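Design request, tokens follow.
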């Protein structure tokens, strides 16, 4: 039997040399190509250890052309066992979602120095974090405002967030916590965008640097790539929020594109394909989020993209806690790809707080498609034939869970959505136990808890999935 095609990476190892704790190395690149004369799909791309995935030009598939696409990786040490230098290791894994033929690249770097000393005033740090949380909340609100909820666009938080009420509200929240009026932020936005995003043909993203640290009205100067807003808190400590519209600050930039809404092809605007968002407090980055998005091409306007469900979105980011060092939220990889023959979802991340922590990963390769027969090539439907799920989670205290299964024969009903699906090859490992499961996932008894026809076989007996949810998670029937 002929060998199946797989992804081949060059080089097979990356060494980042010495990087100070709290700093980020210059990116290094891994080139990919497919062997055996056939393209290979990429279900997930993830890095472990103090390493992060940056730019990714691979899209849904890797072609047979040598170096057909590339992935950039950075070294981001948060601590060093020996301040004079300690070796850190990790790996970059490119998976096709089948569990076979993964390509693993060894990553090494030397962390040295010590972490920045936390600021001595807990009250002001807490206020800063409150402002940071408000910024994140505003970003999410902005993305929801700009895009209809039924459009699957994880990268849309990058879409013109600086002009929506949600972002102004976010900075308003930060201002209330740090003593900086939201009117100053609004002034910066008005200074760089005299008309609304959707008001002018070829409207541009707002750019420029507005500094409120010494002038309450803001000293605004041109900036070719980003929107930067600087301000002080009530203790006169500096903070900076940056929207890098091309990702130039990451070492791997991607140009913006002209795009339009499917319902209004006559109005074009600038759309980012790579965004680097950061919130810096007292010279330390406390929030970082990088997204890469491949937008579908418009069938109405030649050379323009479409503001619609993206072909692929990749994201990586983190949030630093009150100690100024610990990543209380860390997402080294999150991706979603929506193709004409396959759909792939992947996520890995961790969170900590209150003395507890949790980490996990999810991979969902789907045999199905997104149909793009709507206005100007917009997504107007799709189908799922089958899918596989692999997920794991651990809390850092010895408790862990893993689950994997396949699903097919999806049955839907008008007004109800999914009614049932057949599960097979199920494996479940809760806290050291082990069980297998299969059956039809539905709610045939109508009690609101799905799984009365799925049996989980443990070593000491059998339970339905429904009963397991009642016993272990306190699920309550209708």
């Amino acid at each position: 039997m002929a060998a199946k095609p797989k992804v081949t990476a060059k080089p097979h190892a990356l060494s980042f040399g010495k990087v100070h704790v709290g700093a980020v190395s210059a990116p290094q690149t891994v080139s990919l190509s497919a062997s055996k004369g056939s393209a290979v799909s990429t279900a997930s791309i993830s890095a472990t250890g103090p390493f992060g995935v940056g730019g990714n030009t691979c899209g849904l598939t890797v072609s047979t052309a040598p170096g057909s696409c590339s992935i950039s990786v950075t070294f981001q040490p948060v601590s060093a066992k020996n301040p004079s230098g300690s070796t850190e290791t990790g790996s970059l894994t490119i998976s096709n979602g089948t569990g076979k033929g993964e390509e693993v690249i060894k990553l090494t770097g030397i962390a040295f120095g010590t972490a920045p000393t936390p600021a001595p005033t807990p009250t002001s740090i807490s206020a800063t974090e409150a402002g940071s949380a408000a910024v994140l909340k505003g970003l999410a609100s902005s993305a929801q405002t700009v895009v209809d909820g039924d459009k699957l666009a994880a990268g849309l938080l990058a879409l013109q967030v600086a002009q929506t009420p949600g972002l102004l509200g976010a900075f308003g929240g930060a201002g209330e916590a740090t003593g900086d009026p939201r009117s100053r932020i609004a002034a910066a936005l008005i200074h760089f965008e005299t008309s609304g995003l959707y008001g002018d043909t070829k409207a541009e993203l707002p750019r420029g640097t507005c500094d409120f640290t010494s002038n309450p009205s803001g000293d605004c100067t041109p900036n070719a790539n980003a929107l930067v807003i600087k301000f002080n808190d009530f203790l006169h400590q500096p903070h900076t929020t940056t929207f890098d519209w091309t990702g130039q600050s990451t070492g791997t930039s991607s140009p913006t594109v002209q795009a339009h809404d499917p319902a209004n092809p006559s109005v074009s605007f600038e759309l980012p394909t790579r965004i680097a968002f950061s919130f810096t407090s007292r010279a330390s980055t406390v929030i970082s989020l990088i997204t890469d998005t491949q937008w579908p091409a418009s069938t109405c306007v030649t050379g323009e993209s479409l503001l619609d469900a993206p072909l692929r979105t990749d994201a990586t980011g983190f949030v630093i806690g009150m100690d100024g060092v610990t990543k209380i939220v860390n997402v080294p990889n999150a991706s979603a790809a929506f193709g004409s023959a396959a759909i792939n979802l992947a996520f890995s991340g961790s969170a900590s707080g209150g003395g507890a922590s949790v980490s996990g990963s999810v991979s969902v390769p789907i045999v199905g498609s997104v149909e793009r027969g709507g206005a100007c090539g917009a997504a107007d439907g799709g189908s799922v034939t089958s899918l596989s799920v692999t997920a794991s989670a651990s809390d850092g205290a010895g408790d862990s869970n893993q689950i994997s299964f396949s699903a097919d024969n999806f049955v839907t009903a008008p007004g109800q959505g999914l009614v049932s699906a057949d599960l097979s090859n199920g494996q479940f490992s809760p806290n050291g136990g082990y069980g297998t499961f299969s059956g039809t996932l539905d709610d045939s008894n109508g009690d609101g808890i799905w799984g009365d026809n799925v049996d989980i076989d443990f070593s000491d007996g059998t339970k339905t999935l429904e009963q397991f949810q009642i016993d272990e998670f306190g699920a309550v029937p209708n």
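Comment from the thread starter after seeing the answer: thanks! The chain has three domains: 7-112, 122-332, 413-428+436-478.
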